[in-house]
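Field: COMPLEX_INPUT
Field: COMPONENT_COUNT = four
Field: RESIDUE_TOTAL = 276
Field: MODE = joint
Values follow.
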Amino acid sequence: MDDHNSGRRLKRAELSKVTGCHLETIRYYEKTGMMPDPRRSKTGYRLYDETHVSRLRFILRARDLGFSIEDIRGLLTLIDGQLQTCSEVKQRTESHLADVRTKIDDLKRIEQVLAETAAQCSGKDVPECPVLEALFHV
Amino acid sequence: MDDHNSGRRLKRAELSKVTGCHLETIRYYEKTGMMPDPRRSKTGYRLYDETHVSRLRFILRARDLGFSIEDIRGLLTLIDGQLQTCSEVKQRTESHLADVRTKIDDLKRIEQVLAETAAQCSGKDVPECPVLEALFHV
DNA sequence: GATACAGTCTGTAGCTGCTACAGATTAAAG
DNA sequence: CTTTAATCTGTAGCAGCTACAGACTGTATC
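Field: COMPLEX_OUTPUT
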């Protein structure tokens, strides 16, 4: 209505809808500086544009890929300062990838132990249980 | 000194040491009912015995195996009511195992995406980066 | 016994990453 | 014009701990 050039502005609920991000989380990301303060209407309503949509999607996707909030802040800082280089980002990605692999290995070990122990269970209605034994006595 | 029959009692720091559980976490587990209130000395110091050691180890091991606090509370409730059966415990363990496997699969997908995307990186000192592209534009 | 220092007690606040709610204001719909 | 929906702000709550302040013990040394 009042925007002469750029595309239309979104209100918070709309941004929430198009990104899938929880309504309150948007405000939280603004408060913590991950999202910039948006323009406001005369009456104080937040008005978002495409840059906000992209940035929020960036955050959510990074989150989906398991990047920590700290990592994401780091990437955003690079971008905001236009200091990002493929070299740097690749390095950070590979570091995160290493963390993910460690986590997978940890979980696989857990899987092993659980599967092995459960396999020893009779599964009967008796109080003795190899799982509980394992937890109590190493 | 004042215990005529049972083994010696541990103070909180000692329980912490033998189990590896953080000092304050012990108090937290008591507050939340996962650990029973221990006996007290005349002057109010907590005095733990072997049953506390076992129970705390149980909690910590279950935690290490990725059981949620809720799951652990559930197991402890069974045990406390002497209602535990191998059948029931096996079932819960297998349910948790399924969760672990789901988690592993999720992480593997993440690993894939990260590895593939990072592989497209030139790794040079240029601002364009496939990782950032992927995060910004799907 | 005096003194010093460590250990313990309690209640409460802090942390992360959100999510929810209360009370006021504004927008949209009928 | 009235009702309902959306938004605003500040603040509180959640899990699962962890940390700290201020008071009280326990032990060691002199």
